[in-house]
Amino acid sequence: MMQVLPINNWYVYRTCCVSIGFLVIFFSIEGWAQPAQGVTSVDIVSAYKPSVRKVSKFQFFPNLPNPDSSRVSLRYAIPTQGWQSDFKLKPVMPLAYQTDSFKTYTTVYIKAGYGNLSSPYFRAHFSKAIDQYTGYAISAYHQAAKGNQVFQQFAHTGMFINGVKKLSNRPFTVDGNIEFNRQAVYKYGFPIGTTIPAIDAIKNIVTKAGGRIGFSRSVLTDFGLSYQGDLFFHSFSDQAGGRELAVRLRFPLQKFIGESWSIGLAVDLQTIQLKRVSTISQNNTMGLLLGLKHTNGRLNFNAGINPVWDRIGGQLLPQVSVTYKLDSSRLLLVAGWEGKFVVNTYQQLFSTNNWVNTPLQLLNTKTREAYMGLNGALSPYFTYAVRGSGSTHQNMPLFVNDTSQLLKNAFKVVVEPRMVQLQIKGEINYQIGQRIHLYSVLQLNKFSALVEQKKAWGLLPIEWKSGSRMLLGSNFSWQTDLFIWRGAQFLQADRKPDRLKGAVDLSTQLEFQFAKSWQLWARVGNIFNQSYQRWAQYPVYGFNFMAGVVFSPDPKRKP
pLDDT-based confidence at 105, cuts 50/70/90? Predict the structure, then answer.
């Protein structure tokens, strides 16, 4: 049951100012005793979901799957047509090297290739651990493609700098990152027979710049406390004059009581300013979490409350989850009733749908989910999980075709005040060491009880993903990914609702190491060459092929 707290906007702003002032003073005393010299990769995340728990999750035996801590997901994105790299930048973790006898650790990774769609690909990464507490990393990438249709192309370039450093003679670690990326997107989805518009009318260049700086305490205090702080900031702008400025301050505090109990408090403050031509929209939010956690060999639970405030008012979200090991050591029962508070941003909406117009305003999404499921293992190699859930969403952003424009090739964000979602999700995994991994995930969604919109625009009712990862011999690897889904609802030019056709997308990638530091790689996407549309009027690239080399020497170590 939703509970509305009688708190006015002046109280929210005053509370935010007092909290920020307190935390700034705290940072100046504890965190900045030594100058910060480095910055680890943590992206700004729009979902407010603090946790009260230790670093490692409990696990009853090695092959039993961990309890599913992810909440209900509204999936928008499907295959990326093979433009993603199999190498993902990870935070610098020099602490992992402390058992060795060296102080310097350097890694280099360069991947380059070219494809049949005039598609260059380049990614480079350099990281160095100076000692067991200090390190940094730099990553840069560029990729582009050009399809067969007019203006069916894109380009994406970015750079990341990340680092971590322990303050001298103090139990604090400072870390952070700086990020910049630029995307060129073309709205090529104009109807057949339309006069080809000028390139300036359909080209959109978006730029993101931002970063994060934070600190954490490496050891518990004398009172058994663990805490950390993070300050995020980013700027996001488009070619149409839209610009978003966002700042987020996060401070979780946790106290351990014995081996099985812990309590925690988390403060999360965010402010977002969205400028659109001559209008300005402000979105200030504050969230708190007070929780209790219990962990032992059989019963584990979290119980807490999560009050949140924004310009609409205050609400109280539940945070209750239970994991119980049944008589069989390979079977877990999971259940919960949890609330989720998502601060929607223009940057987040654009990353979901690249052809969306600058939103008129930003409203936060509040979700309450009740779920129950089973996680288990039939053998040391075969695991499974199944879960059913029911969720109620408030102010859910949906993407609908903007039929008011002449070309009708863009999308606008509409906010649905209330939507109910029923979901059944099942997953199976078969894995033998690091050589064979087979998986399959099926997700069924039912959206209903919408108040203002006719349909749940852009959301997928059925998703099925399967794949394999195999290491054959010592120098050859092979992976495949298969996506099957039913199309989403969209709005036709005459404003009549319709549904896109479903599709099947199969891709595969091969890697062969022919020298100590060199590999050949090839990737084939959309093998069936289906011209499906994830978003109405925007067919995907179709069959695509890309190949290249990887240069990745063994890490250099100096004693």
Answer: low
Q: Which structural domain range is residue 213 located in?
A: 4-558
Query: Which distant-in-sequence residues (6+ apart) come within 8 Å of 18 by Cβ?
Result: none
Its sign, for the CA torsion 81, 83, 84, 86, is: positive
Tokens found for residue 460: 């997928």
What's the pLDDT tens digit per position in 378-416? 888 999 999 999 999 999 999 999 988 888 889 999 999
The pTM (predicted TM-score) of the whole model is: 0.80
Phi-psi region of 473 (alpha: psi -120 to 50; beta: other; left: phi over 0): left
Largest CA distance in the chain: 73
Please state the domain count of the chain.
1
In 3D space, the residue among 327, 330, 441, 443 whose CA is nearest the CA of residue 383 turns out to be 330
Helix or strand (DSSP H, E) at 9: helix 9-26
* Cα distance from N-terminal residue to C-terminal residue, the chain: 61
pLDDT digits (tens, 9 = 90+) for 473-503: 889 999 999 999 999 999 998 889 999 999 9
DSSP bridge pairs for 390: 370, 422
Give dist(CA 389, CA 71) in Å, integer: 9
CATH code assigned at 354: 2.40.170.20
